[in-house]
Write a structure and sequence with these properties.
By secondary structure, this protein is an alpha/beta fold. Helix content is about 40%, strand content about 15%. The structure holds 1,3-dihydroxyacetonephosphate.
Length: about 250
């Protein structure tokens, strides 16, 4: 049985003070449950909230990292810097990084390897654009991002990995993908991982869906056995709305 995972990607929102207020509020709204792991991904400048005693019930993720441990890379943040702040996960290869900051599959792969080297669990984001879907290239694009992103990763590291399928056309548009569409892509991803690392590893892999997930539609996704949770953008920014997503996930059948 795979434990559900709900990740809130705050993107470039909230100061450190706002983050602390958010964490206090969210802690008052949700209880912990063994069924669902709750992960918060604030911007780098607000990751210090992970050290607050109240934040202990949550797990923290960064939104990116640089693949080197240290060096002359102005503006960059490395994996050891994140682990010492208390991060356990890191979102990598988000479509906004790929599209707006020119990250290619090779760079994403170096980041995945760096994360694993330091015990950070990568949440590898993959997904096709609208034009690619319309051209019938969804499978090809997703498999390319997956295979290149995971290149050179040893079998045993596979169990630390999370994949997030985020079709670019569903992000921030209010147009979530249909559970059937997601199910088909998740099966493709799991089959690819099974070929690479075997069926046991593939069966353990958690595959999240991301793209316009809201309190009103989360339950539709969780009814699909292939969907192990969600990567939530705008609907995680308000603690009340994120708490509704979490509590619905906690009460969903697995
Ligand atoms: P939205 O939930 O705002 O569509 O964003 C999804 C996302 O990009 C999460 O990483």
């Amino acid at each position: 049985m795979r434990r559900h995972l709900i990740v809130g990607n705050w993107k470039m929102y909230k100061t450190a003070a706002e983050a602390a207020a958010y964490v206090r509020r969210l802690a008052g709204l949700v209880r912990q449950s063994a069924k669902v792991e709750i992960v918060l991904a604030p911007p780098f400048t607000a990751l210090s909230v992970a050290a607050l005693p109240i934040a202990r019930r949550f797990v923290f993720a960064a939104q990116d990292l640089h693949w080197e441990d240290e060096g002359a890379y102005t503006g960059e943040i490395s994996a050891p810097m994140l682990t010492t702040l208390g991060c356990r996960y890191v979102i990598l290869g988000h479509s906004e990084r790929r599209r707006l900051f020119g990250e290619d599959d090779a760079a994403v792969n170096k980041k995945v390897l760096a994360a694993l080297r330091h015990g950070l669990r990568p949440i590898l984001c993959i997904g096709e654009s609208l034009a690619e879907r319309q051209r019938g290239q969804t499978t090809r694009v997703v498999l390319r991002q997956l295979q290149k992103g995971l290149h050179g990763i040893p079998n045993e590291a596979g169990r630390h990995l999370v994949i997030a399928y985020e079709p670019v056309w569903a992000i921030g548009t209010g147009q979530a993908a249909a559970p059937k569409q997601i199910d088909a892509v998740h099966r493709t991803i799991r089959a690819c991982v099974a070929r690479k690392w075997g069926r046991v590893a593939a069966g353990r892999l958690r595959i999240l869906y991301g793209g316009s997930v809201k309190p009103d539609n989360i339950i539709d996704f969780l009814g699909t056995a292939e969907i192990d949770g969600a990567l939530v953008g705008s609907a995680c920014l308000d603690p009340k709305s994120f708490a509704r997503i979490i509590t619905q996930t906690q009460s969903a059948k697995q």
